[in-house]
């Protein structure tokens, strides 16, 4: 900031600009309100069809969001400009006061250009009072003091001006198209975020061995504080640089460093750093600035190359970055490109006698979370965990190849019936890749963390929710789309296909995820079961809950259900989702009209059929594995009969039921669809009563039967179907009598038994 620029600066034009920005902010606030209430609100309520259901609706949703971001950006710009103008006017006042004092001390201050100035003593004598010029001569200290005071004022003004300029550039560059959602209440807040980022970047510039535990704690607390701050994240990431971020984490996580300099306090900070650093870098990748675009390109290029360091067995870029990206929200395009390059490289080296990932000489334990069963040496595992936390990227990564072009009518698609219609990434990871356990000495023998991570990635891709979402997140409701359904169709094709039973049983770490995926689409599965073969399916009784519902075909739905019924976890999860969906259908059609009763009859019949397929599959698999009616088989059936306890603690909101899975160390939910967006007064519905009963039962009787014969198991299933029937007609005796006359009981019971103990092989896949 030049002296004359501040001294004679005319801030009136800046004031006019601020007024314009403030008026624009008010106008955008109104436009934001209209966009959310009118534009998006009407689009959400409209019945879309064809391409419009995805393309037009998505465009309107994004447009409404852009109005919100435009308002946020305009408000932030106005506040930063206003604060800067007020500060500069204040510094101008301070400067003029300092210049007046200098003049009174016979000092001359002159701007010499390029941000410099001079302060000299006025040695010309005052002929009126001191002709000799000797009395009252200016001292060098007075010159220096005046110079220092003026320099301090100019430095502060320069800082105010330059930090405001940098903050505004960062904000504008965050989004290449549209507007940034970065929000700051003042110039000081934005400037402090940038300054703190620079301060933290200096810690990463040090040798990791020289970084103290106190510095690590400071780094962690600051990264956690700014975890959602876009300016901090970008400034930090670009100041550190991609390679330095990798080498620093490798040095901190190096197991040998921990072994020879073991400090529990440092270990704790190191573990938190993996999470905080991953979150910060992820936030930075959301920026579209030229600097961050270059950063992302460099990070991908570093992937297959060793970092040329002494720490962590000299890992590749993939090995380190994949462990950092386990945490955080990353740019979808960056994750896709990173993963695409990673798998291309992995295909070249996977299956060799010695892989570069999991082997005896690789001691680079770069994952400090759950590292007994996942040391973090296989970078594909960490990447898949990243996809599990980033549903948009995962959906894109596993997109159906025949509908990867968004201009194609993905809503009007056929079933997946050939391998050519399966995504290459999905095919490689599920059926071709050699997975190796990456466990520590005290880990679970044979456990493959990568397959568990693959399950998490597929959960994100098919449900639209992060795999670790908790119940409070599900108030957003159903997030399925035609694109998530297209991923589900591929999963159902692979695991419901001829090799499906083998895939399920040889990949046990995937079972719970497959159950959750099946449960999330139980409404579409029921719709497929509602017809006779491919004919007569009833979209009125089993309405689509989103545009572009999954298309499995009748036999595809039966095959997939029959595979999911084979293991304890998948059977329990899908049976629970099925039960809750059927109850919600009955809640939506109380026995008060003939039309409602017809829908209820279909709901109970299809629900009984689905339950029969699941139960039959479970009995047949137990008999195949342990021997028909053996003690072990009966133990298996006894555990599977306890599925209702999964409903304990279920939360109903936004047209879905969030069902917590017990025994999981992380957040684990079954997100099951319901028949209506809102379940009014849920506690007084069939669904609400069943949830309450399950919760009370779990607390009162935590034990399960030790054994159960197949006859008893089917008897339990028949009883469950009967309980639904009885509960539906409670308080409606006339309707119950009419249903009895029409022989509902026989039909519903046959739907269960005909696909249960009397099931023929052609109705589903045989046991493994």
Largest sheet, if any? Answer: 3 strands, antiparallel
Unreliable residue runs: none
Q: What share of residues are in beta strands?
A: under 5%
Count the E strands.
5
Structure classification: mainly alpha
Distance between the terminal alpha carbons, to the nearest Å? 77 Å
| Portion in helices | 55-70%
Number of helical elements: 29
- What would the principal axes of the Cα set say about the shape? elongated
In the sheet with the most strands, the strands line up as 3-4-5
Rounded to the nearest angstrom, the radius of gyration is 33 Å
Mean pLDDT equals: 87
Describe what is shown at a glance:
By secondary structure, the protein is mainly alpha-helical. The chain is 59% helix and 3% strand.
Notes on the protein architecture:
The chain is 59% helix and 3% strand. The chain contains 29 helices and five strands. It has helices at residues 3-7, 12-45, 55-104, 140-173, 187-204, 213-225, 230-240, 242-253, 255-260, 264-285, 290-302, 317-324, 332-349, 379-389, 391-397, 424-432, 449-463, 482-495, 500-506, 511-520, 522-529, 554-564, 568-588, 594-626, 631-640, 686-700, 710-728, 733-741, 744-753; strands spanning 107-113, 116-121, 651-653, 656-660, 669-673. α14 (379-389) packs parallel to α17 (449-463) and α24 (594-626) runs parallel beside α29. The model has no long low-confidence stretch (mean pLDDT 87).
